[in-house]
C-alpha cells in the first residue's frame, strides 16, 4: 500500500486530479485496469498484455504527426525493477536491467513510431544487427505512412 501511495503522489501530482480522487478510489481503479483479455493473448509475444495499447499509441502518433525532413531513430532504456522476461541486460549501463524502446523522432522531439524490443530466439539467429533491423523497420513505417 505504501508503494501505491508513493506512485500516486508521483503520477497524480496535478492538484486538480489529486484532490478529485481519494487514495482508496485510486487503489480500487488500479486493481481493475487491464489493457487486454487474458484469453486472447498471443502466444510467444512477451508484451502481449500491452500490445493493444502500444498499437493504439502508434496509430495516434502517426495520425497526428507531420513528418519532418530530418528524422532520427533513438533508443531509450526504461528501468523496471520487477521480474519480466522481456527485460534486457545491458552491461556497462547505470541501469542494467530494463526495457529497450526505439523511437522514430522528428527534429523537434515528436515521436512518430515507438517500438518495444523483445529479443527472442529467432532474433538472435538473424545475421543483421539489432540497430540495422530497427532502422529498416522504421524506414518501412515511413514509406507506408507518408504521402508524397
UniProtKB/TrEMBL annotation:
InterPro entries: PGBD (IPR029526), PiggyBac_TE-derived (IPR052638). Residues 11-140 form the PiggyBac transposable element-derived protein domain. One of its GO terms (molecular function) is sequence-specific DNA binding. Pfam families: DDE_Tnp_1_7. This is PiggyBac transposable element-derived protein 3. It comes from Trichinella pseudospiralis.
